[in-house]
């Protein structure tokens, strides 16, 4: 009984490890996807126009560049990734989903291009 349970658990662990590895090698993530699925619905009600906090307008790629919210290829040193992965942004919550955080991670990892 215990043995069976144990092997079921290891099966589950190996399946989740496999799907996580797959997520790491996900398809290219474009800025237009990030913008339309995350930034516009979850950030721009605050981060847009002249009143945008810290001057960061998240609806415009050039504003992400000029405010240095990312370091291309280096998510861990990218302010925008740190803010969403620690749950500091969106300000007041709710935190982005794991998939959304992963998408921002992957876009930066892949060069944070204006694509
Ligand atoms: C309810 C309003 C609001 C929403 C929604 C919001 N922000 Fe912010 N954001 C702020 C405010 C206010 C600040 C400045 C104060 C601060 O840094 O805590 C800020 C600052 C930031 C900063 C700079 C932080 C720093 O000081 O280094 C980044 C990056 C950022 N936001 C990203 C995001 C992203 C990405 C989203 C969407 C996932 C988001 N924000 C959603 C209000 C908001």
Please describe what this structure looks like:
Mean pLDDT is 86; it is low at 11-22. This protein has helices spanning 2-24, 31-42, 61-66, 79-85, 98-109. It contains 5 helices and no strands. Helix 2 crosses helix 5 (98-109) and helix 4 runs antiparallel to helix 5 (98-109). With 115 residues, the protein is an all-alpha fold. The protein has one domain (28-109). Residues 42-43, 45-47, 53-54, 56, 58, 69, 79-80, 83-84, 89-92, 96 line the site of heme C.
Lay out the secondary structure:
Layout: H1 2-24, H2 31-42, H3 61-66, H4 79-85, H5 98-109
Helix pairs in contact: 2-5, 4-5
The structure holds heme C.
Main beta sheet strand tally, sense and closure: none
**Uncertain residue ranges:** 11-22
Strand pairing plus helix content: what structural class? mainly alpha
Q: What is Rg?
A: 17 Å
Measured between the Cα atoms of the first and last residue, the distance is 53 Å
Overall number of structural domains? 1
Q: How many DSSP helices?
A: 5
* Shape category: globular
* Strand residue content: under 5%
The percentage helix is 40-55%
Order of helices and strands: HHHHH
- Number of extended strands: 0
Index terms:
globular, 5 helices, mainly alpha, 115 residues
